[in-house]
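Here is the promised in-class demo. Please do not try to memorize the tokens; focus on the logic of going from shape to residues.
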């Protein structure tokens, strides 16, 4: 008889019985878990970075000024001026409105009319500014700018163009400047 054929299956059976017994005894005994004290990982609290509210106020003032000139409603934000949120909001709005204000729709036409009308700083009565606006024209189409900045000779050229643009869009067209508009080929 071959010893290997008999001994090998007996050893395998014995090994399975021993392993099964060890496994069942392990399952019956409770496993001891060592409890370690919980260590809280405390992150340093993120610092709230404050910004200079003067900078935020300056962006807000620029935004509001050009929104009035262009004819848009004033933007609002409830966040405190010393927060990063407010700084980002007002900086973005200031960039956007200044970019818009730099390009009035009929800018070339207003520059051509200005060439025939007068100096941007012309302060002679009864007409003021580079587009020669009279008191009635300024009080009708730019009452807020007139109130805060004075007559048109104290306004920037862009402000004067936007006031003229407001008159143009309300149906006046280029008719308040009949000769200069004709010379420019606008009438």
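The designed amino acids, position by position:
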């Amino acid at each position: 008889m071959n010893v290997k054929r008999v001994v090998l299956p007996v050893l395998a059976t014995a090994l399975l019985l021993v392993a099964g017994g060890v496994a069942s005894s392990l399952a019956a005994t409770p496993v001891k878990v060592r409890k370690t004290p919980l260590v809280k990982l405390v992150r340093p609290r993120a610092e709230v970075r404050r910004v200079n509210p003067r900078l935020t106020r300056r962006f807000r003032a620029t935004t509001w000024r050009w929104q009035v000139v262009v004819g848009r409603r004033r933007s609002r934000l409830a966040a405190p001026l010393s927060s990063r949120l407010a700084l980002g909001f007002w900086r973005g709005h200031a960039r956007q409105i200044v970019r818009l204000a730099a390009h009035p729709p009929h800018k070339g036409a207003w520059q051509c009319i200005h060439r025939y009308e007068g100096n941007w700083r012309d302060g002679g009565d009864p007409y003021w500014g580079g587009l020669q606006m009279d008191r009635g024209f300024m009080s009708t189409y730019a009452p807020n700018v007139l109130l805060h900045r004075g007559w048109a000779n104290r306004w920037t050229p862009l402000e004067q163009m936007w006031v003229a643009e407001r008159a143009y869009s309300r149906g006046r067209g280029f008719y308040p400047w009949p000769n200069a508009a004709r010379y420019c080929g606008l009438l």
